[in-house]
Amino acid sequence: MYRAIVFCIFFLISGVVEAGEKSDAAVYMVYREDHPVLRMVDTPGVLVSTALPPPGMPPRRHEFLSASALDPLEEDQLGRILDVSGSTAEFIENLEKAGYRVAREQGTP
After folding, report:
1. Is 45 in contact with 62 (CB distance < 8 Å)?
2. Residue 108 and residue 28: Cα distance in Å, rounded?
3. Taking each helix axis from N to C terminus, what angle separates 88-97 and 72-83, rounded to the nearest 10 degrees?
4. For 39, which DSSP code?
């Protein structure tokens, strides 16, 4: 049952980011070891949490990227790193310094 719920949430949040993607925007996957923890697009947009937002609350928007968290155990740390980053490039650099691996998805600029 738990896996089915996680699977459904993954497809729901993946669709939110994909809907906002521009064809010229770079797309990245962020990993902790070999486990995917974040999917991000280098364009301003929505930050999608693994947790459901409180009723009536709009999704959080971000000034330089769109992202979907994939692991609730990593989400807080990822948010702290994002909060001290001023650009997508700086966010990637800060993620790598914190031990995450960032990979650009094939076929993106």
Report:
1. yes
2. 9
3. 120
4. E
